[in-house]
Structures are given as structure tokens and as C-alpha cells.
Amino acid sequence: MKDIEEILKFLPHRYPFLLIDRILELEKGKYILAIKNVTYNESFFQGHFPDRKIMPGVLIIEALAQAGGVLLFHTIPDPETKVVLLSKIDNVKFRKPVVPGDQLELRAEIVKLRNKFCYVRGVASVDGKPVVEGEIMASLFNLEELNEQK
Prior knowledge:
Elements lengths: L3 H7 L11 E6 L3 E7 L19 H17 L8 E13 L8 E11 L3 E10 L2 E14 H7 L1
Antiparallel strand pairs: 1-2, 2-4, 3-6, 4-5, 5-6
């Protein structure tokens, strides 16, 4: 089990954009199960929506992508030399609103892994019921390549 201090070692995200709180299970090259505790104090609830607090669906997708990023960090060789960027989402379905007090269970599974990209299937659930699911493609870049493009 990995807590927030361990997660910070693997993801570049920080407040207010770090969207996973704990990793419950991780099998290298296979899947990850993480959680995001959704609290009333989340900054996005100020505007989405003031009278009916609903977590934006794109942030749930981002939480799944972040979980997938941690999984990739534990799967690919030399992860400290790579940057993982979200490049595509497909077949996303939003099934139920996520509200303050919910605990998102984020499960991401590697579907296909190549040298420059990875396909991940993600399902976010609350109380065992899917709320968002879809496919995420991430592109893998060498840090040196990105630095040369500047």
C-alpha cells in the first residue's frame, strides 16, 4: 500500500491537481487500484456547481490517468528518464455524478504497451458501482527529447 508521500515520488502533480490519495494494489505491468477521497473542500466545487456540488467528469478521467501514470512508472524501464502525457481518451461513459463524501475507487489496467505509447482501460467506481469508464492513451517521451524541443 502506498500513501500520499510515496505517490508524490511518482507523479509531478501537486495541489490542486493531485487527484489520487492512496494506492491499495499494484501489479507491475497489469493493474493498479487507487482511491481519491472527494471532500466538500475541493477547490473545483466553488464553481461546479455552487448549488449542487458535482465533481467534473474530466477530473475523474484525470484521476484515472494519474493512477495509470503510477502504474506505468512501475512498469517501464528507466521511468525517471521519461515523461508520460495524456494523448487520447476513447469510449468514455459517465454513469453517475460524484459528490462530496464519495470515495472514488480508481482501477486502471494496461491494455497495450509499446515503446512510445500505452493504452489503459480505466474504471472509476463509488461503493462498487461504476461512475466513469473509458480508455486512455498516454504518450511516453524521453526527458532529453522534450528539453531539445524548447
